[in-house]
Write a structure and sequence with these properties.
It is globular, with a radius of gyration of 18 Å. A hairpin with a 2-residue loop joins strand 4 and strand 5. The chain is built from 5 helices and 6 strands, in the order H-E-H-E-H-E-E-E-H-E-H. A 4-stranded parallel sheet has the order 1-2-3-6, covered by helices on one side. Strands 4-5 form a two-stranded antiparallel sheet. About 35% of the residues lie in helices and about 10% in strands. About 5% of the residues have low confidence. Helix 2 runs parallel beside helix 3. The protein has about 180 residues and is α/β, with parallel strands linked by helices. The termini are far apart.
């Protein structure tokens, strides 16, 4: 019913469900999650994503489900919202990325919201590795947006290679390799 009401009002996208796996009880958004079990978490959100929309919009009663917060938002340092996350790549993939992958592949979600937090010192919404290598190159051809003011409030230096486009990186590499 909610998706249909949203469409009647002219919207096509819902910023839900929250797919975060809560791993720190001090984190102030634990109540938005289904806890720390990545498997039951994925199953619940798979159903929610299908309920919201199937990406065809044939019946004009569905919306785009936006999975959030990609990724590892549920284990911030000191339990503070938006704080950096310190996890190994194995824990990241097995615990935090698993529900996203499952809901996208089996639930048909077509939109992801990048999180505020940093992983390995790089904000999720500016991480080429996370957004391009993990999200896109693993067969996930969806669209991704940032969380609220994430881009405008980012403190990352604009010259960091993490956020440069591949074209800019190639240009810089060519200009460095030319003899003086």
């Amino acid at each position: 019913m909610t998706a249909e009401e949203t469409r009647v009002r002219g919207a096509h996208q819902a910023l839900t469900p929250v797919v975060d796996v809560a791993r720190d009880a001090r984190w102030g958004r634990v109540e938005e999650t289904y806890g720390e079990d990545r498997f039951s978490h994925a199953a619940r959100h798979r159903r929610r994503a299908r309920f919201q929309g199937d990406a065809t919009f044939k019946d004009k009663k569905r919306v785009i489900a936006t999975l959030k917060h990609f990724a590892a938002h549920g284990q911030p340092e000191s339990g503070q919202n938006c704080a950096p996350v310190n996890v190994s790549e194995r824990v990241l993939r097995e615990t935090f990325l698993h529900p996203f992958k499952d809901v996208i592949e089996k639930g048909g979600a077509i939109s992801v919201m990048a999180s505020y937090n940093e992983i390995d010192g790089v904000p999720s919404h500016a991480s080429e590795w996370l957004l391009r290598d993990v999200l896109r190159r693993n067969g996930v051809q969806r669209f991704c947006g940032s969380d609220y003011y994430a881009i405008g409030s980012s403190t990352i230096a604009p010259t960091r290679t993490d956020i440069l486009s591949p074209r800019t990186k190639r240009k810089r590499a060519r200009s460095r390799s030319k003899p003086a």
